[in-house]
From TrEMBL:
This is Uncharacterized protein. InterPro entries: BolA-like_sf. It comes from the Eukaryota. The lineage of its organism: Eukaryota, Sar, Stramenopiles, Ochrophyta, Pelagophyceae. Gene3D superfamilies: Phosphatidylinositol 3-kinase Catalytic Subunit, Chain A, domain 1.
Length: 130
């Protein structure tokens, strides 16, 4: 298994876990990232402090081969982070009305541990809390 737990997300509201709080921003982030990248795996966690309906901070992990510039060459890691942030910003506008932390932006082989990530994954955050 790779760096993160595998969690394929098919965002069909009827299939969502009724015990988990899926707010409208979280659903919208997942839908926009799925629409742009068709990821093999995606995680989007509401990490807001306080009320679960706050939706002021999110951590995301995106795993997709869209981060490959050719079949054997992956995009620079910082470029991937920028792509994810820009995709979400195109949907919500800038500055973002919440904090978005991209915890990882990996290709499927990197995720499965079959390839090396081109730079040490870190946390990259953007956005402001209104």
């Amino acid at each position: 298994m790779g760096l993160f737990s595998r969690k394929k997300v098919e965002v069909v509201e009827e299939d969502l876990d009724p015990e988990y709080q899926y707010g409208p921003r979280r659903l919208r982030i997942i839908k926009v990232l799925r629409g742009r990248y068709a990821p093999q795996s995606i995680e989007c966690d509401n990490v807001s402090e306080g009320d679960v309906h706050d939706e002021s901070a999110f951590n995301v992990v995106v795993v997709t081969d869209d981060f490959m510039s050719s079949p054997k060459i992956s995009l620079p890691y910082q470029k991937r982070i920028q792509m994810v942030i820009e995709t979400v910003a195109d949907e919500f506008g800038t500055p973002l009305p919440f904090t978005l932390t991209v915890q990882a932006a990996l290709t499927l082989k990197e995720y499965d541990g079959e390839a090396t990530v081109p730079a040490q994954p870190g946390q990259f955050a953007i956005g402001t809390i209104k």
